Structures are given as structure tokens and as C-alpha cells.
Amino acid sequence: MKHSIKIRINGQWYLGDVETGMTLLQFIRDEAGLTGTKAGCENGECGACTVLMDGKPVRSCIILAVEADGSEILTVEGLREGDKLHPLQQSFIETGAAQCGFCTPGMLIAGKALLDKNSNPSKEEIMEALGGHLCRCTGYKSISKSVEIAIDKIK
Amino acid sequence: MTLKHVGKSYTRNDGVEKTTGSAKYVADMKFPGMLHAKVLRSPYAHAIIKSIDTTEALKLPGVFVVLTGKDVPGPFGVAVADQYPLAKYKVRYAGEPVAAVVAVNERVAKEALKHIKVEYEPLPFVIHPKDAVADGAPILHEDLMNYNVAPYVYPQGKNIYQHFKVRKGDIEEGFEKADLVVEGETWYPYIHHVQLEPHCAVAQYNLDGTMTMYSTTQAPFVVQNCINMLHDIPLSKIQVIVPYIGGGFGGKSDVTIEPLVSCLAKAVPGRFVRLLLTREEMFIGTNLGRGAYCKYKIGLSKEGKILAMQGESYLGSGGNVDYAVNIVTGMGLAGTGPYEVPNLKLDVYGVYTNTPPIGALRGYGHPEVHFPVERLLEKAARKLGMDPVEFRLKNLLAEGKVNGIGQVVKHDTGNVVLCAEKVAKELYKSPKPNKGDNILVGRGMAAYMKTPCMPTNVQSSVFLKLNADGSVTLATGAIEMGQGTYTVLAQMTAEALDIPYEKVNVTNTVDTLISPYEWQTVASHTTWGTGNAIILAAENLKAKLKESAAKVFNTDAENIKIEGDKVVYNDKVLTWGDLALGYKNPDGSALTEPIMGEGHFVAKGVQNPDPETGQGNAAADWTQGCIGIELGIDKTTGEVHLYRLINYIDAGTIVNPQMARDQVLGAITMVISSALTETLVFSEDTGKIRNNNLVDYKIVGIEDMPEEILIDFVQTPEESGPYGAKGIGEHGTVGTAPAILNAIYDATGIDFYELPVTAEKIMMALEGGE
């Protein structure tokens, strides 16, 4: 059975007639064509597909597109303002926190979710926010450091 | 020589793409009329395929073709021709592809799998290499002795497909003189790379005999070669295209899903066919790593000198072993660790097992053998009542000493002694911290060395295209999979041409039809091999600039000087851009040709090791280092907390310190979890991997990282390397597990010889259960 839904992604409405089983991740990648959000496990285990849904970080691979009907989504493509990179994007580049780049979109969104609700998080709070996001390249230190640097950039 | 760009921590040139979501990976690409494939995999680790019936699956609307073993070519393999794209007659691991469906979409393809009927006759199976060589073990390849193998492969029959020997000195005499002999057995379990990006390949075959394939491979030219062998398509018509890949770690090297995808594409000419693996399929249907069982014996004098070493190692290699043969070699070449051993006997056996194939995994045979060496040396130091640091320093491969394969350590081989001294100084700079009554604090270290284990004549070519605005495009066949290759190569290009770093751009897609040849992006050899090619290409480009300018100024090339982006003859000046596309005479006629620099590097002087003794110049270079760990163990839970990590590495000249540090840390991080949590669990009934997801197979999370990290360099320039550089990507994996286990011993007094050392195992041992 198909459902007519609309989801606002990065400020733009996307309409779709979707099967019940389609995930939000599939909608973002296949319907909206925004492939920055990555599918690492499609089981909610790695965090690569994290997006903001109405301001909250969610794993888009375990949410159905129909559940997201009418919601506001932010993906990695929506982080920058015009040509200006978000402070997190800048700090990730400065520290080399994006190596293969596959976990990066999810990490950036998790960082953004944290900084949106807490402009001055402690090291522990950063670790908590990034917990459950898997990265096989970096050893995480450059990623948590990027979030710390972004705090100062935002101030 | 003052270096302007090499040695600077430039930010990554792929940073914007990778942080804005615009970097493209294979699974992001769609093609017109693209079909989708799904694979039916064996539920048994070892079974005869009695029959396969695809009739019902083919009837399903939307199904294009269903292939089984009878439809595909083979056997294929570079070292041992022992595999097919789809199993024929027999399956040898749970997860082996048995049939594959191409359908209009993934859903239909998946549905069709349910309608394929396969009748199996299960056979006894074997997972551990020790069991695979025991009398009466089930035989995986009955016809092994008749297989086509490369000249350096020596099948022994039964399940042993390779025997690598190292012989030096007189082993019996060495042990006779020994005052102390320590012995032990280690097991480095089967683990998975867990790249965040699942394997994906999309291919199209055309009736004009061309094949195009996009793939998540570290080895496009190896894939090209494999497709050539399988389908007899000329190499010139096989286009393998690789954009960014989301992590490789060796698990996307050689070939993985590509042979099968090429067969599927061939079955539906003109259509693109995509195979994207699920996370579960990555565990059961791609290459694994490690699986090494080692039995070592070391004889020492009472003064603490190593007199003799005997090692017998078995690499569990899976149901087909093409990608494991050279890991066996690595376990031999590095089998002593970075220590001088005058009398040596190593036997490394490659063994068939009913597991997915074991292939390259960051470290490539070196972590496997450093594990027994570093654990047993720790034990020996203790028994001799010697300080483990002093003991190591006495035996390390200092300049002038001879390594296990007969190479004399030269100055530029690197300074492992200095690395060890620096680690020890830092690790033991203050007394152990007091973390409370429940925490046992321990410290341990391990020294390491690694060589690339490459073909003797490994090749790297590059083109440097000079553009009309004076900018330069570097074309390379090297893959970017996270390691920062394109940044490092751009730095070396800027250095070699003496132009601003910003003027260099690197192609970020490899295409086997047009990219210059590159063996494959493995073995931590790109900085070294491709860097050497860049220097040659820069010389070539500058020579062409001089030749062109000489024509313009009507003089000889040797009178022309290159100063920055200018070409100068006395007081006459041209820019590089003036010459890039050829100089025009005032009447409009062309005077000179467009300019592109070419650089072609091949390793010279590297030999195959002697088949009887393993001796020879078989290692192009060695990167060496030392790691120290300080940790605490909670007596009430057995949990390990890492406090401090100290690592000094001599990888020659460091091209980009920040990125090099992150490479070392990334490699060490992978092994933190293989030391403490990671192991694949095989079902006792079927031999299938049970923990095939990221919850049950636990890799390091941010909360598991050491609190303090010091990673630094000793930089002894490598003679054979560009600007003195050599490999650094894998080396952090090599000594980490034994360093952690040595620290666990220091904390608890318990010796572990099997990985992973989980909290449960530590608790059991603390309670006296082990």
C-alpha cells in the first residue's frame, strides 16, 4: 500500500508516494536524492544515518518514512548556511576528523544536536552525545576535539 | 635540503567534500535501468551441493536471471586457483555464494531467493587451523595438489596450501647453549574489518565486449585483471571506476564481490547490475582477518640475550585462500619481531578452514607473530629477573645487526631502539597512579616492525598535467579510503615542483582505462611508491618545461632556469602557463607541445625469499616503533580502562604530522578492541558466524579510548623513500595487543595468550578459574 507523504528536508518540502516499509533513510537518499546521509548497517547500530527530526537526533534507518510525514529533517547537506560552513564542519576539517567520511555525517549531526541544546558541553557530555556512533578510522579523539573547537567558534 | 611542504600538517584536501555530504561513494550512484542483485548464501560451513532448482524463482515477475555455479567461469586465483564466483559442487564456508538473482529491484531479488531450492549434504567442518591440520580433519580441497598455483606457493596436501620456511644459524646449538627456554601458544582469533561502508559494486557489460564496473575496491587494477582472467575481455576494455571508499583496512583489497558482479552483468548485457551487501553479509560474505595460531619457543642466555627461536604458526585462511598466501609470507618475514635472533627456525603454514576467506587486514601477518614474540619475551625477562625495558634494548635490531631474513640493519632502516627508549622513559616517568583499592594498575610495552609484503616489482605510475593557468593536476591510480593519501600526494607534488600547495589538485576518482597504473592501495606503500613516482614525474615535467622554453628562446635546455612558476633565460621570462598547452609563434603557428609530466616507479632489488631458508632481500623497507600502555583493571568487574597510550614510530620522514598521528592512532584503536572484545563466534552446529551485527560484535567506541595519548615520531629518513618517507598506515596494529596483555600481566600477574581478553575472562582468572 502506498502513502502520500511530505517531509521537509533542509528547508525544502519533498513529496512522495511511498510503501509502508520505506525507511526515512531510504526516503532521504532515494526520494530526495540527498546521499550525504549514509547507510552503514540499516539496523540502528552504527549511527552513520543520524539526522535531526524536529530538532532531535534520530537514526533514520529505523524510522519509517510514513512516521516522519510532516516532520522537519536536517541532514548533513543542510548544515552549512549558504557558502559558509557550519563551525562543526570547519572544525572537522581543521582536525582531520573526517577520514573515510562515512561516519562523518552522523557525527556532525550528533554534534549539532548537542550544541543546539547545550552551548557549552563538558568533555563527558560530548562523549555521551557521540556514544554509539561508530568510527573505524580515527580513534575518535579528533572528532571529540572538533566538537570542543566548534564550541569556541560558535561563541 | 629545506622542505617547504613535506613535514607540514596541511588540512585534508577532501575535507569539504566529506563534511558537506557531497563526497560520492559507490552506493550513492544510480544508473539508468539499473538492476539489483541478491545472493543466496550457504547456511552450512561445509557441504556438498546435491542439487539446485531455480525454476520457481525464475517465474517471479521482475526476475531477470538466476545464476548458479554451473553458469560461472573458474576456478580463478592469482596465487592459488581455488575459487569460483558461485560455489560449484561444494560449499566451504557458511555464507559462500551459491546462487544469485538479478531483478528489477532489491525487494523482488530478495523474494526470489526464497524460491531457490538447494539440497545440501552437510559435511564435518573445521574452524580452528590447529584442528584443520589434525589427523582425520575434514579435507576442504581434495584436489589441492593438482591446482594451479603461483611459483612461490608450495601446497603440502591435506589442508595445508602453503609452507613458508625461515632458517638461520643452527637452531639446535642455539637451544643447547640456552640457560632459559620459554614456550607458549597464542591465538589471534578471526575478526572483521568493520568498514563503515558496506561493499558495493555496479557493473555493465556491453555486447561490444566492454565491461564497466564501479566498485568499493582498494584494488581496481587487480579487479580489472581478475575480470580479464574470468571473461577473457581485453584489459583495455575493462573499466573499473572507484570514487571515495568508506574504509578499507585491507578488506576491500584484492577482489571480493567483483568477480560475482562481473558474471551477473555479463548475464544481462547492456544493463547495470548492482550488488550492495548488508551488514550481515559483510561479516559472512567478505574477507575476514587474522585467525593465527602460533607455537613459539625462545632460548636465552642468563645475561638476557636471545640465542634461539623456533616458531610454528598456522594461519586459518578460510574456504579459499588466494588472499592469505602473502599473509603467510608476512608472518615469516617478521616472525622474530624487531629482535636479533642468531639461530632461527620458523615454519608458517597456510591452512584451509571452513570460514569465510581470510584476507588482508591492517597489519598483514605482523600483529599475528608479534603477539607470541612479545608475550614470551616479557615472560623471559621476568624469569631472568631483568627489567623488561633493559632486556628489550639488549636484543632489539639496532644498526648493524642482522634480522631474521638476513638483512643487515642500516641506519635508514630506522631506529627501533630510540623508539623503545622514548616510550619507556615516558611510560615509567612516575610511579604507578593510585586509582583506589578496587583498581589494579599495570604497564606494558611492545616493540614492533613491519614491511609492506609486496610483489618484488611493485609499480606506481603518475601523470602531472600542467594546466594553462599554471595549476597542476595529479592523476594517480591510488585510492582514498580515509588515510589521506590525496593530501600527502599533493604535498609531495608541491614539494617536487616547488609550487604552492594550493596549485595542486588530485584526481579523486580512479578509472582503470585512463588512470596511470597502480598495483593496489595496500601495504602502506602509497606514500612510498606513488611518492617516488611523483618525484620522477616532476623531474620529467620540469625537463619538458626547459625543453619548450629552450625552443622559444632559441637556446639549449641547460641554459634555462626554473624559478618558482617562472621559466627564465637571462632576462627573459615565461610562466609555466605560457608553455602548458604549447607555445605559439607570433604568426599563430605552434612552436612547442602540450606538457604533461610522467613518473613511473618500480621497486628494484627486492627478491623472492629463498624457498628453503626464507633468506634474501625480500623486504623493501621496515617501519619500526614501540608502544606502551598504562591501564587499570577493576577487580570487581574485570573491566579494563586504558589510562595512557604512548607510541613512538620511525616511519622515516613524516609528510603530514597531524594525519600521520591519526593514522597511528586509528590503527592502534582497531587493535584495542581486538585485544579486549572482538572475536567472531562460529555456531557449533553449522559453522555460521553468529555475531554478524554491530551489537554482538563490539568494536571500540568513544568511551573505550585511552584518557591520555602521546603519539610521536623518530624520523630517520628512508633512503628508498620520497623525501625519506615510508609507510605508516598499518603499523599501529602490530604491537598493540601484546602491549595491552603485558600491562594486564603487570596489573594482575595473569598471563593471557588468547585474544580477546574480555572482562569475563579476567574475572574468571582473578577468581582462580583459569
From the structure above, extract its key features.
heterodimer; A: 155 residues; alpha+beta; Ubiquitin-like (UB roll); DNA polymerase, domain 1; 2 domains; five-stranded mixed beta sheet; 5 strands; B: 770 residues; Aldehyde Oxidoreductase, domain 4; Aldehyde Oxidoreductase, domain 3; eight-stranded mixed beta sheet; 18 helices; globular
Secondary-structure map with pairings?
The complex is a heterodimer of chains A (155) and B (770).
Chain A: E1 2-9, E2 12-19, H1 24-31, E3 50-53, E4 56-59, E5 72-74, H2 87-95, H3 104-117, H4 123-130, H5 141-154
Parallel strand pairs in A: 1-5
Antiparallel strand pairs in A: 1-2, 3-4, 3-5
Chain B: H1 15-20, E1 35-41, E2 47-53, H2 55-59, E3 63-68, E4 90-91, E5 97-103, H3 106-113, E6 117-122, H4 129-132, E7 160-168, H5 171-177, E8 180-191, E9 200-205, E10 211-215, H6 220-231, E11 238-242, H7 258-267, E12 272-276, H8 279-285, E13 289-300, E14 306-316, H9 325-333, E15 343-351, H10 366-383, H11 388-395, H12 416-427, E16 439-450, E17 459-466, E18 472-476, H13 485-497, E19 504-506, E20 510-511, H14 526-553, E21 561-563, E22 566-569, E23 572-575, H15 576-580, E24 596-602, E25 623-634, E26 640-650, H16 657-676, E27 708-713, H17 736-748, H18 759-766
